[in-house]
Amino acid sequence: MNSAAWPAPAKINRFLHVVGRRDDGYHLLQTLFQFLDMSDWLYFTRTTDGRVCRVGDVPGVSEAADLSVRAARLLQEATDCACGAVIRLDKRLPTGGGLGGGSSDAATTLVALNEIWDTGLDEDALAGLGLRLGADVPVFVRGRAAWGEGIGERLIPVSLDEPWFLVVDPGVAVATARVFQAPELTRNSPRITISSFYTGGVRNDCEPIVRRLYPEIGRALDWLEQFGVARLTGTGACIFAPFAQEHLARGALECLPRRWRGWVVRGCNRSPLLRRRRLSRSGSASRVR
Ligand SMILES: C[C@@](CO)(OP(=O)(O)O)[C@H](O)COP(=O)(O)OP(=O)(O)OC[C@H]1O[C@@H](n2ccc(N)nc2=O)[C@H](O)[C@@H]1O
Ligand SMILES: Nc1ncnc2c1ncn2[C@@H]1O[C@H](COP(=O)(O)OP(=O)(O)O)[C@@H](O)[C@H]1O
User: Fold this and answer.
1) ipTM, 2 decimals?
2) Which is the most buried residue in 50, 189, 243, 275, by most CB within 10 A?
3) Gene3D superfamilies under this entry (predicted)?
């Protein structure tokens, strides 16, 4: 039995610029990923029958589509592993919220089952497998706050300030593909260097599109802006604003209109998963099929 709890933390995009587009339609980004001390929780039981299944309901996510189940099957195939797993997902992060919950569930599954099944892949191999499941999965596998380029898979670890954040969920599910398909999306933001982040010349290029497609998110941004710089994470729906001290963020949370949900959480440069995992140093990417 391996039923210990594994965290699948949230991420935010401290900023997000769209700097181009690949031939396959995917957008080239510049972004800063940071983790939040706020997680889904996953429980794994190793079995010997080779089956991967999920127990329990996850609202809006069928077992077959669940990225944790798909990640387990991918790891199994890639390593010819004969083991199976029963997966239980305690879903805490809003789905389609721009907090990367599904991608994080996939990354935690890859990292946890690599350990539980003893499949011996190293971090690069796991990140490569993760990329097949989604653009955001590699940063969760690596677990370090990062400057991201490409579609988010070219990652340079960074050490950012770790403020408290008030994160607000306006209760709308955003379809990432719909935002990226919008004709008026800015796709040619000039490339910047990391120092621009600290001098304040950054934004989230998806925000004007999201405000138009999902007016409730615009209303939430306007509300949060009274406390400081409010920004969308990823393609939304969640938004965040930093606070220098926890009590200031909690004071703002107390004023939150009742129709929205909010959390006061700490930004972290090392993800809760990184603290939990024990990656094999001798693992070999050559074991990936
Ligand atoms: C935009 C970001 C920023 O962190 O965040 P979210 O708001 O989704 O969390 C991510 O890059 C999202 O990553 P992820 O959620 O894994 O996206 P994927 O499943 O790979 O892609 C969903 C769809 O969005 C579009 N897409 C996604 C990423 C990207 N760089 N360019 C795109 O054009 C594609 O149409 C793709 O089919
Ligand atoms: N375990 C999962 N948790 C959440 N969403 C999942 C999961 N597996 C698949 N999905 C799908 O992934 C999509 C993106 O979900 P999520 O990662 O929560 O949001 P975002 O990409 O906006 O940060 C959802 O529309 C959902 O259908």
Assistant:
1) 0.95
2) 243
3) 3.30.230.10, GHMP kinase, C-terminal domain
Residue ranges of the chain whose pLDDT lies below 70: 1-2, 278-289
If you average pLDDT over every residue of the chain, what do you get?
94
Ligand 2 centroid–CA 101 distance in Å is: 6
Establish whether residue 97 lines the binding site of ligand 1, counting it when its CB lies within 6 angstroms of any ligand atom.
Answer: no
* pLDDT tens figures, 199-211: 878 999 999 999 9
In the reported structure, the alpha carbon of residue 117 is separated from the centroid of ligand 1 by a whole-number distance in angstroms of: 29
Tell me the one-letter amino acid at 71: A
DSSP strand pairing (154-157 vs 146-149): antiparallel
What is the value of pTM for the model shown? 0.94
Residues that are catalytic? 11, 136
Q: What is the CATH architecture assignment of 1-289?
A: 2-Layer Sandwich (3.30)
**Domain boundaries, given as residue ranges, for the chain:** 1-289
CB half-sphere exposure, 173, CA atoms < 13 A = 9
Tokens 């996510």 belong to residue? 61
User: Measured between alpha carbons, how far is 87 from 84 in angstroms, rounded to an integer?
Assistant: 10
Measured CA to CA, the distance from residue 227 to residue 237 in angstroms comes to: 19
Distance CA 28, CA 42 (A): 31
For residues 189 and 19, the answer to whether their CB atoms sit within 8 Å is: yes
The pLDDT value recorded for residue 96 is 87
List, chain by chain if needed, residues with CB within 6 Å of any ligand 2 atom. Answer: 61, 65-68, 89, 95-103, 105, 176, 234
Best residue among 33, 35, 61 to mutate for probing ligand 2, ranked by most atoms within 8 Å of CB: 61
